[in-house]
């Protein structure tokens, strides 16, 4: 237990947030289960074909941006070879009737687009690669 520091981006501004861990169990629907944190720069895994591609080493060099949640890809405003600024929208995923913008974590170049509009993605599935 203890205090953990997380970095979040809100409206293109990076904030550091301190969170104190109170319980190590999560309860949902009357069932308790142990919770474990996912280390930074790792994902929960994913179950789709794109996640399998990532696990098999499809990425040779850059940083792979993964889906933070399960949903349907509504749009991919970023293009391969495009230079983007920190906070620019790369992919939009719809989950539970809400649009979730996946933004650039830093100034970078999009080196490859892995997903496409209309694709179903699981949490952890790769969306695109940046360098």
Architecture overview:
This protein is mainly beta and 131 residues long. Helices cover 5% and strands 48% of the residues. The protein contains 1 helix and 12 strands; from the N terminus they run ββββαββββββββ. It has a 4-stranded antiparallel sheet with strand order 5-12-10-7, covered by helices on one side. The protein has a 4-stranded antiparallel sheet with strand order 9-8-6-11, with no helix packed on it. It is globular. The relative contact order is 0.23.
Features of the shown structure:
4-stranded antiparallel beta sheet; single chain; 1 helix; OB fold (Dihydrolipoamide Acetyltransferase, E2P); 131 residues; mainly beta; globular
Number of domains: 2
- The SSE order reads EEEEHEEEEEEEE
Major β-sheet, in short?
4 strands, antiparallel
CATH topology of the largest domain: OB fold (Dihydrolipoamide Acetyltransferase, E2P)
Q: What is the CATH C-level name of the largest domain?
A: Mainly Beta
